[in-house]
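Long-time lurker, first post. I've been practising inverse folding by hand and with some scripts of my own, and I keep getting stuck on stretches where the structure tokens seem ambiguous. Below is the full token string for one chain I'm working on. Before anyone asks, I'm not after the true native sequence, just a reasonable design that respects the backbone. If someone could post their per-position residues I'd love to compare against what I wrote down in my notebook.
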């Protein structure tokens, strides 16, 4: 892994956070995911097949100061400045300290780039946990920088008066905005801004209980949204993110203070619930309604790799990782489904 991921990140060093057409650049995340899935030979060919979509890294504008960084938060024209800011931070302190210090101010804007800031940061952290190298440190700067530059807040803030529902129960109390004729075309970032006009969504962040076992909470959240992904005929990419984002938080949480990790989990729930409120045209299915597929794990991995889709590869790995911790069949069914319904996107 050490040589191959560093080679991949060096190949991608010049690429920007977005692709031609505006979608997020998934290549660093997919490279790390393929290695985690045990498919190192697929990494370089996948990047080479993706490279026509790359854009150059945006230029620097002016440095972000450690004392007045808030004015640059959410300014996507300053993405290169944010990456440079985190490159400097990572040169001055261990990556674990940078993560512990900077995730808390970023989590209220966890919806950043349709949650890609969090997801890319999670993949970078998993790679650094294996070995610290300059390309991997820079990739963490890219993830955190993208998160800061695209910081997006949803309506509602956690309060002292929290409800105490598990995710599967809480999601049934989230009002769906659209009916079955909803056309979900357009970017998730732009679509989700519509929640600013839905006053009742502001209470959603208070619905869940994150006071218990945090790993179990993340398991319940990802299982719930794997089922929601399967139940809905449209908005599939958005629902993919509602599994991969909280699963990425699982990779980051061990490096955070306990209170910060629990707050991050609440904001992860808020982002997932926002996706449900805006995109779901079908209610959440009841837990325990799924039966295991016949395919084995290696076959599911092969299907995802063959489909070549960034989302199908990342979603499959997240589902398999969540299934290993919480062996519910919904994860395997969703992993089997994504290669066909989402495919090469």
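-- Answer (accepted) --
I ran through it position by position. Result:
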């Amino acid at each position: 892994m050490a040589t191959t991921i560093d080679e991949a990140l060096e190949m991608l060093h010049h690429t920007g956070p977005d692709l031609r057409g505006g979608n997020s650049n998934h290549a660093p995340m997919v490279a790390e995911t393929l290695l985690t899935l045990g498919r190192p030979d697929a990494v370089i060919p996948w990047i080479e097949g993706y490279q026509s979509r790359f854009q150059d890294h945006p230029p620097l504008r002016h440095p972000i100061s450690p004392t007045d960084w808030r004015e640059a938060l959410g300014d996507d024209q300053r993405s290169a400045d944010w990456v440079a800011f985190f490159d400097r931070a990572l040169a001055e302190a261990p990556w674990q300290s940078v993560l512990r210090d900077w995730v808390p101010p970023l989590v209220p804007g966890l919806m950043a780039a349709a949650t890609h800031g969090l997801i890319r940061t999670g993949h970078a952290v998993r790679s650094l946990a294996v070995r610290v190298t300059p390309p991997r440190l820079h990739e963490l700067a890219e993830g955190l920088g993208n998160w800061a530059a695209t910081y997006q807040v949803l309506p509602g803030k956690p309060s002292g008066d929290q409800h105490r529902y598990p995710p599967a129960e809480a999601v049934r109390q989230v009002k769906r905005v659209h009916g079955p004729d909803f056309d979900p075309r357009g970017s998730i970032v732009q679509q989700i801004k519509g929640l600013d006009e839905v006053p009742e969504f502001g209470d959603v962040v208070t619905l869940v209980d994150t006071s218990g076992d945090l790993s179990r909470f993340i398991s319940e959240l990802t299982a719930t949204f794997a089922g929601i992904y399967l139940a809905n005929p449209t908005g599939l990419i958005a629902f993919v993110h509602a599994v991969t984002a909280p699963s990425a938080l699982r990779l980051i949480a061990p490096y955070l203070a306990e209170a910060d990790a629990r707050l991050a989990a609440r904001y992860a729930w808020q982002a997932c619930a926002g996706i449900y409120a805006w995109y779901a045209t079908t209610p959440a299915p009841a837990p325990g309604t799924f039966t295991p597929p016949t395919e084995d794990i290696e076959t599911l991995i092969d299907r995802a790799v063959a489909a070549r889709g960034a989302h199908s590869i990342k979603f499959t790995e997240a589902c398999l990782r969540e299934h290993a911790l919480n062996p519910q069949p919904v994860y395997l069914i969703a992993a089997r489904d994504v290669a066909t319904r989402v495919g090469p996107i």
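A couple of notes from the structure itself: The mean pLDDT is 95. The longest strand covers residues 15-19. Happy to go over any region you disagree with.
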